[in-house]
Amino acid sequence: MRILMINPNTTESMTKAIDEAARAVAGPDTEIVTVQPRRGPRSIEGHLEEATAAVATLELMVERRTGYDAYVIACAGDPGLAAARELVDAPVIGIAEAAMHMACLVAHRFSIISVVDRIKPMLTDMVQVAGMAPRCASVRTTGLGVLEIEEDWDEALRRLTEQGRLAITEDGAEAIVLGCAGMGPLDRQLRAELNVPVLDGCACAVTLAEACHRYGITTSKASAYRAPEPKEYLDWPVFDSLAR
């Protein structure tokens, strides 16, 4: 099968890290293609950045809406996820939703640990929209910017471990969901430190995409994710192409 991994931000080093995380868990018959938009924010840490990244991601989806068996939106806010599901029949999986679902298979409640403090309300809303609020013990942050994580892996591990222990002892979490695609390389070390499941969304999304493909499941077009109606998009050729 072929999976298109989309990094919604425009930082090449993060795109490379997402690609490596996906390939590490993909089966031998799975081809991973990892891309990023031509334009958009370098990182996603606020509502404006998320909204603009979502549009850039959808533009890319329109251009590549054939030739893949599944699509993964590799950002912990799952930007543009519902709209992307309208564009293709193949499964479209957001890494946050994937990690939360997988966490619920192995734990009663999970906590999300993410980056800067301002992202907490966004992730809290995302949990609500995904229908996961009853299973989410807390959303915690490390204070690290998205692009700071790979600058000092030891410091990132220290802060994630600190917040993970608090999530377990104070919030009742039994699993940890990593709230940034850039945190993925630390999942195994964190499992060893915290002694609970720690889930990288990229790995979870690839695993679930392969499962959907083997089982023959595609996106339901019955109602919420049916194809968009033909409509003129003024001065926006990539979306106007949907009408033809």
Task: Give the SSE layout.
Layout: E1 2-6, H1 12-25, E2 31-35, H2 47-63, E3 70-73, H3 81-87, E4 92-94, H4 95-106, E5 110-114, H5 120-129, E6 136-141, H6 153-171, E7 175-178, H7 187-194, E8 198-199, H8 201-215, H9 237-240
Parallel strand pairs: 1-2, 1-3, 3-4, 5-6, 5-7, 7-8
Please describe what this structure looks like.
The chain contains nine helices and eight strands. The protein has two domains: 2-94 and 203-243, 3-Layer(aba) Sandwich (Rossmann fold), CATH 3.40.50; 96-200, Rossmann fold, CATH 3.40.50.12500. The strands form two sheets. The protein has a four-stranded parallel β-sheet, sandwiched between helices. It has a four-stranded parallel β-sheet with strand order 6-5-7-8, sandwiched between helices. The chain has helices spanning 12-25, 47-63, 81-87, 95-106, 120-129, 153-171, 187-194, 201-215, 237-240, and strands spanning 2-6, 31-35, 70-73, 92-94, 110-114, 136-141, 175-178, 198-199. Helix 5 (120-129) links the parallel strand 5 and strand 6. The chain is of the alpha/beta class and 244 residues long. Helices cover 43% and strands 14% of the residues. Helix 4 (95-106) crosses helix 8 (201-215).
